[in-house]
Amino acid sequence: MREIRQVEDETVKWAMSDVAPMSDEAFDRGRAALLARIDAEPAPEKVVPLRRRRIPVVAAAAAMVVLAGAALLAPSLVSRVNGPSVGSAAAADLLNKAANLTGDAKLRPDQYLLVRQDARWSMTEYEHDWMFLQDQKLQTWIPADRNGPWLYRREQASTRQWLIGSEKDLPPDLKSPFDGASEYRSDGGPALRDKVKVSFRDPSPEYLATLPADPQDLYRKLRDEAQGNEGLVFLQMVNDGLDTGAYPAHVRAAVYQALTYLPGLEVVEKAAVLDGRTGTALGVTEKETTEQIVIDQTTGAYLGSRTVLAKDAWGLKQGQVIGTTSVTTEVVAGMGLAS
Fold first, then answer.
1. Do residues 322 and 163 make contact, with C-beta atoms less than 8 angstroms apart?
2. For residue 272, with 0-12 CB atoms within 10 Å meaning exposed, 13-18 middle and 19 or more buried, which class applies?
3. Which helix (H) or strand (E) holds 321?
4. What is the band of 9 on the pLDDT scale with cuts at 50, 70, 90?
């Protein structure tokens, strides 16, 4: 998946802890410069795409810019292949049932919703001479009054798990965005709200209020945010948003129903997310990669996401998981508490 071209404004997400707050003007200048660089042909030798599940991008080492949300595949550069034998009608039936089951935990005014996200990121470069995975734990404390203070914490990533190559194959000046622990606070929304334009990936209470209740209208809005994409990028965006744990049940229900309009969405298989829980995976395949959303059919709960190889590629076998998340929630007595 080396044809990386598009980048949305929303992609600057939980950038590394030593990045200072950025003005809108500086963000726009940086984004324009990065897009111009990415669009240049041929691609510069030192441009290194990082691949988590959501494929962030690092520019040349001299200007180390990390977009940790998602660099998107240009729709013109990918082609949808036929999905599994179970078709979209089955996917729609599953999603509509899940929409009727999903619910919310009840919080007292002094309580917080603790969202735990286990993540397995991947990182590689254009020629896939090397690729490694790293696991990381992320936690978000969301107040009962969502306009109150939020806390976001990420732990140091695990040691690298090599799929292709080894440490000796890495560029000497490469800095992994997964290294280092960090903690952020903000009022009324995601903890890097002052650096990130709110979107489906990074929703604020005000953003949630703008989402249409009608599933078809919601689908159109999300399609617009995905710059017209109706495939893998769209589903990546939905997974990114649901990973935050910030969406209440009535919005999750509408999102599930909106996904019934996604062309090519297939019921893939029973699939395990990173913490071992198993649900039904629904996926979209483009080129060598399948993006999956995993849902518990008995409760309607969003369990997490997976990115897997749809065919043998880069010396790896079909079915290799190259990114996954799992999400759980728990009501706790205060911000920063584990139970």
1. yes
2. middle
3. strand 321-332
4. very low
Confidence of residue 280 (pLDDT cuts 50, 70, 90): very high
d(CA 239, CA 256): 11
Beta bridge partners, 323, equal: 307
47 vs 316: CA distance, rounded Å: 23
Partner residues linked to 140 by β-bridges? 115, 152
At 81, list the tokens: 């292949």
- 8-state DSSP, 21: P
Q: Give the pTM.
A: 0.75
CA angle 123, 128, 129 (to 5 degrees): 105
User: Of the candidates 180, 127, 118, which has an alpha carbon nearest to the alpha carbon of residue 304?
Assistant: 118
Q: What is the pLDDT averaged over residues 79-91? A: 51
Q: Tell me the pLDDT band of 264, cut-offs 50, 70 and 90.
A: confident
Tell me which H or E stretch contains 303: strand 302-309
Please give the single-letter amino acid code of residue 132. F
Token pair of 153 as six digits: 């914490």
- The length of the chain, given as a count of residues: 339
Instruction: Record the tokens describing residue 23, joined without a space.
Output: 């003005």
> Residue 307: helix, strand or coil by DSSP?
strand
Q: Is the dihedral of CA 118, 138, 285, 202 positive or negative?
A: positive
Looking only at the bridges linking them, the beta strands covering 112-124 and 131-143 are antiparallel
- Report yes or no: 120 and 274 within 8 Å, Cβ to Cβ: yes
Please give the Cα distance from 80 to 78 (Å, whole number): 7
Give the Cβ contact number of residue 70 at 10 Å: 25
